[in-house]
Design goal:
- The structure is a single chain.
- This protein is α+β, with helices and mostly antiparallel strands.
- It has a domain of about 100 residues: Immunoglobulin-like (Sandwich), CATH 2.60.40.790.
- It is about 20% helix and about 30% strand.
- Strands 1-2-7-6 form a four-stranded antiparallel beta sheet, with no helix packed on it.
- The longest helix has 13 residues.
Length: about 140
């Protein structure tokens, strides 16, 4: 992108900027700066036999990731080459990140599996046999 076009886009207001201007002060929590996510969003779900950790990391290759378990801490990190171009507006940048999670004692650490497809990294964290058999709900009698 030429420098002239970059300057023009930073000077000329967007149609959306004008449209949302009356509400901008109500919803603008970042002082007018663009928010850039530098770590991907993560969802964690618990199933009967396992926990599933899902990481949204588009535009990466499976070889960009490194997954380590040190004692009870799971660390997911990634590093990739940054692109030469500078976006006019940037809301995510996952060129490198690191996320760590403390694992519960019921996770079988040497059986953790990971798959990356279509921008989603999924980790499967199986539970111990005892945890699988245990009834998830315990009724407590009030005395």
């Amino acid at each position: 992108m030429s420098k002239e076009l970059t300057k023009a886009t930073s000077i000329l207001p967007s149609v959306f900027d004008d449209y949302f201007k009356p509400w901008k002060d109500l919803f603008d929590f970042n002082g007018g700066r663009t928010i850039t996510a530098t770590v991907p969003a993560v969802n964690i779900t618990e199933e009967k036999d396992q926990f599933k950790l899902t990481v949204a990391a588009p535009g990466m290759d499976k070889d960009d990731f490194r997954i380590d378990i040190d004692n009870d801490v799971l660390t997911i990190s990634a590093e990739t080459e940054e692109e030469e171009e500078t976006p006019t507006r940037q809301e995510y940048n996952y060129s490198s990140f690191s996320r760590s999670f403390r694992l519960p004692a019921i996770v079988v650490k040497d059986k953790v599996e990971a798959k990356y497809k279509d921008g989603i990294l999924k980790l499967y964290l199986p539970k111990t046999e005892e945890a699988r058999k245990a009834n998830g709900t315990k009724h407590v009698v009030i005395q």
